Prior knowledge:
By secondary structure, the chain is mostly helical. The protein has helices at residues 2-23, 31-43, 45-56, 64-91, 101-127, 129-137, 139-159, 164-187, 191-217, 220-224. The longest helix is centred in the N-terminal third of the chain and has 28 residues, at 64-91. It is globular and about 55 Å long.
Amino acid sequence: MIRNLVFVSLAPILIVAIYIYLRDKYEKEPVLRLLLALAGGVIIIPAVLLVERFLLSIPSGLSVIAFQAYKAFIVAAFTEEAFKYMMFFLIIWTLKEFNEKFDGIVYAVYISLGFAAVENLIYVFSGGYQVGILRAFTAVPAHAFFGVSMGYHFGLARFYPEARTRELTFAFLFPFMWHGFYDFFLMTDKPFMIVMFLPLLAWLWVSGLKKMKKLSDDSFYRISGIGNDTNKANVSGPGANSGDRV
């Protein structure tokens, strides 16, 4: 029973992790660095839960819809995406392996997956198999695509210093915004809100895949023809000789 619940909880996480790893076609990140990113998403859980509990204790006198918006955008989206954002800066931003734009997507998604893994275990153990199956097609991909959005802009910020302030702002703003709408549509029991949720989920999929394709096609290693058979330590990435790295 417990083993099955763990499997239902973590299988979609593993599938998305493998997919993102394979999409990094031209210069894959070291497994230990990916595990570091996953661990980063896990270790923020206690802090997120404490902050969310505190934020839930603040509002009073709100209407039902206003309280749902508060929970969706402030309690959940703002807190979770802020901690993911801070974790990216703490453990990823200065890595020498973060040497092309697509790497931002890979690491941000892995941080999101670490967080989603623990969250999935909590929900599935309390709600059962049906919750796990539903989340495999909704919450897990959504967390991944919030990570894609964050990592896309982190990647641009890393290698385009002239746009760094704007892109670092977008790296938080867009995941926060989409996460907030995602949760708000789910928390509101109005039928038209559920109807709006489905196009949002579809848009997250389409937009996320386009962002991955764009940065993958822009890969220095694809354009230069170097590829995965070259040791990272022996290759200068796009920022190493352009002055774009920090």
